[in-house]
Amino acid sequence: MFNALSILATYSTEYSSSYDAGAAAASMIPSIVGSLIGYVLMAIGLMKMFEKAGVTSWYAWIPILNVYWLTKIATGNGWLFLLCLIPCVGSLIWCILTAVKLAPAFGKGGGYIVGLIFIPNIMYLVLGFGDAQYMGPQ
Questions:
Q1: Helix, strand, or coil here: 131?
Q2: Which of 1, 14, 71, 125 has the smallest CB count inside 10 Å?
Q3: pLDDT in tens, the chain (138 residues)
Q4: What is the pTM assigned to this prediction?
Q5: How distant, in Å, are the alpha carbons of 20, 47, 81, 102, 128 from that of 52?
Q6: To the nearest 10°, the Cα dihedral for 105, 48, 42, 129?
Q7: Helices (H), the chain
Q8: DSSP secondary structure letter of residue 107
Q9: Residue 44 contacts residue 37 (beta carbons within 8 Å)
């Protein structure tokens, strides 16, 4: 006779004991380190951009505040950062809007817009440490 509960009990005891929490934690370490490196590079690039725009540079290290000031530098209206609170579509709209407005604010063209959409952390470093001068929202 078929007994689903005995099969389920056998399955759960055989496979749950083979789970190794230490291995799972160790596999997360490269992801955490990579995320921290990415955040530090982004914040350094934003610091230099904020300095060029006349904004206090340490704002780049505070998560919500840096998005507000980046939006304000790009568009002139900092409250547009609230688009980021709308899941998926709002973040995508914010990303594109900021890129389209940020590149001309630093005197750059279409190539920089594409770069700011697809590789923003690197482009923040390029705008911050490059020869771009902040000209204000366009």
A1: coil
A2: 1
A3: 456 555 555 555 555 555 677 777 778 899 999 999 999 999 999 999 999 999 999 999 999 999 999 999 999 988 888 988 888 888 899 999 999 999 999 999 999 999 999 999 999 999 999 999 999 888
A4: 0.78
A5: 49, 9, 20, 13, 8
A6: 80
A7: 4-16, 21-53, 63-75, 89-105, 110-118, 120-129
A8: T
A9: no
